[in-house]
Design a protein that fits this description.
CATH topology of the largest domain: Alpha-Beta Plaits
Largest sheet: 8 strands, mixed
Shape: globular
Order of helices and strands: EHEHEHEHEHHHEHHEEHEEHEHEE
Structural class: alpha/beta
Number of domains: 3
Number of strands: 13
Length: 364
């Protein structure tokens, strides 16, 4: 009989610990608790949990410090860690990535979302454990071949298979080295997803995400985009890195329009099941610092800069089925699209109104 997955809940507030532990126990998980960073590290060493729910703000040792210590330990470097915070996740995201966190949850906790993410990360850990076991049986093979395959496997997490092959063969510069480049950034997410997750069973939520991620993923690969990361229903994709392309804004817009059309098809199926969802996109162009974020054993490929914030804010302002683009993007694709001028939008983090345009359709 399979043993239940073990989850460690870390929070200095007793009521939060009890709420999460009781919920997870009721769902069949074996739970352990800790009220401080040092106690959490000791419990990890003793009990060997499969996943850690870790509060960010704790006295003495913060959740980020705990996460860094877990990543520094080879035995826990791949242990799934979900940071739980009452702060703005967007502002804390870079800190979490640098510390090695796998995901974020906002307080107050959304129970269906929590359970869905726990299941997803546990599946990833199970697959990782299986792969680790298989890799141990390959130690007698030629080390050069093993190293190349491992590098290719890691790169395919970030890039299209064709691009990963180019990097491994040496036909493209090492993209993991920090560098600055002009990119076109696309943010997208599902409208109404939070309400849907609150009122639906976790299996329904995961089913929608599987369909959504599969369709969007195909279009990202078709247009040679680089998927920076996805969290739940949100995705960030950028163009012109690691291999420069002359038409990054055009690729981004064509992909966004194709995504909207594909989501329209999904919406027909989802509405028949009673799911009230829709879709919005933000696109911006500008310079960003790009490269590996993290440390040995836990690396993510990310882009940091005002352009990523602008694309995210435009996505947040987009109404259902809108594709909001910055003036710079429109200037690059004005012969390609029919767009509606929206005037200046007041966006969080920007001192002046930002001109924005809604892409209605591609020109014939």
């Amino acid at each position: 009989m399979n043993q239940p997955a073990k989850i460690l809940v870390v929070d200095d507030t007793a009521v939060n610990v009890k709420l999460l532990a009781d919920l997870l126990t009721a769902k069949g998980y074996a739970t352990f608790t800790a009220s401080s960073g040092p106690e959490a590290l000791a419990t990890v060493a003793k009990e060997g949990p499969d996943l850690v729910l870790l509060d960010v703000m704790m006295p003495g040792m913060s959740g980020y410090e705990v996460c860094r210590k877990l990543r520094d330990n080879p035995e826990t470097a791949m242990l799934p860690v979900v940071m739980v915070t009452a702060l703005d996740p967007a502002q804390e995201r870079v800190k979490g990535i640098e510390a090695g966190a796998d995901d974020f949850l906002s307080k107050p906790i959304n129970q269906p979302e929590l359970l869905a993410r726990v299941r997803s990360l546990l599946r990833v850990k199970q697959l990782h454990d299986q792969l680790a076991g298989w890799n141990r049986t390959l130690e007698q093979r030629v080390q050069e071949q093993v190293t190349q395959l491992e590098r290719l496997g890691k790169l395919k997490r970030f890039f299209s298979p064709q691009l990963a092959e180019l990097i491994v063969s040496g036909d493209a510069e090492d993209p993991l080295k920090s560098h600055r480049r002009e990119v076109t950034v696309v943010f997208l997410d599902l409208r109404g997803f939070t309400a849907f997750a609150e009122t639906s069973e976790p299996e329904e939520v995961m089913g929608v995400l599987r369909e959504y991620h599969a369709e969007m993923g195909r279009l990202i690969l078709e247009h040679d985009g680089t998927l920076e990361r996805f969290t739940g229903d949100g995705m960030m994709i950028f163009f012109n890195d690691p291999v420069p392309v002359p038409d990054a804004p055009e690729r981004a817009i064509r992909m966004a329009v194709a995504m909207r059309a594909r989501v329209d098809e999904l919406l027909v199926r989802w509405k028949k099941r009673g799911y009230d969802l829709d879709f919005g996109v933000g696109v911006a162009q500008g310079y960003a610092t790009i490269g590996a974020i993290g440390f040995e054993g836990r690396m993510d490929y990310g882009a940091i800069g005002t352009v990523t914030n602008l694309a995210a804010r435009l996505c947040g302002e987009a109404r259902p089925r809108q594709i909001l683009v910055s003036q710079r993007v429109l200037g690059a694709v004005e012969n390609l699209v029919e767009a509606e001028e929206l005037g200046g939008l007041t966006l969080k983090g920007f001192s002046r109104p930002v001109p924005a345009f809604n892409v209605a359709r591609l020109k014939a």
